[in-house]
């Protein structure tokens, strides 16, 4: 099970779910305080801005970020839930959770995972650039990006509510 939440609900989500692994996809300078139950070796901090194209002074999603996300997801032992968060729980974290689900279940249809994401969170708006990079890295031939485009932009909100994506 992959749980997604905003930074403000990280401790609560880890405690409620019993998660032992945390993936932080957030701006480089944003401090993240882990709950004491999460060991340092079970945490990955991937720092980049939530943008869809390069912009001066900002860090855009790149293949290095996607490779780090994929590597962490694949090393996750799946004995306890994984929590993925960004600042608001809307874009970077939802894209990262979608990417992890696609990587961990290569036989599962991308559109099915995207629809499950939308059903779990009407607010989710996965970062399209991050998804496109992962789509290429995973050899999904544009299907991941098409599936995310098909579910459309999520409902506007100040931050997302925690939600989960089930794995098979």
TrEMBL record:
It comes from the Bacteria. This is Protein tyrosine phosphatase. It comes from Ancylobacter vacuolatus.
């Amino acid at each position: 099970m992959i749980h997604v939440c905003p930074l403000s609900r990280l401790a609560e989500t880890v405690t409620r779910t019993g998660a032992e692994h945390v993936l932080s996809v957030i701006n480089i300078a944003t401090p993240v305080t882990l709950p004491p139950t999460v060991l340092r070796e079970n945490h990955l901090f991937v720092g980049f801005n939530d943008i869809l194209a390069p912009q001066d002074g900002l860090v855009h999603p790149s293949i290095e970020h996607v490779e780090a996300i994929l590597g962490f997801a694949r090393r996750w032992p799946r004995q306890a839930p994984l929590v993925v968060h960004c600042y608001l729980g809307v874009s970077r974290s939802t894209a990262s959770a979608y990417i992890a689900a696609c990587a961990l279940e290569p036989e599962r249809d991308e559109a099915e995972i995207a629809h499950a994401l939308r059903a779990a969170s009407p607010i989710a708006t996965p970062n399209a650039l991050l998804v496109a990079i992962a789509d290429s890295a995973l050899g999904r031939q544009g299907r991941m990006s098409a599936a995310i485009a098909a579910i459309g932009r999520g409902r506007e909100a100040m931050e997302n509510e925690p939600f989960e994506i089930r794995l098979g």
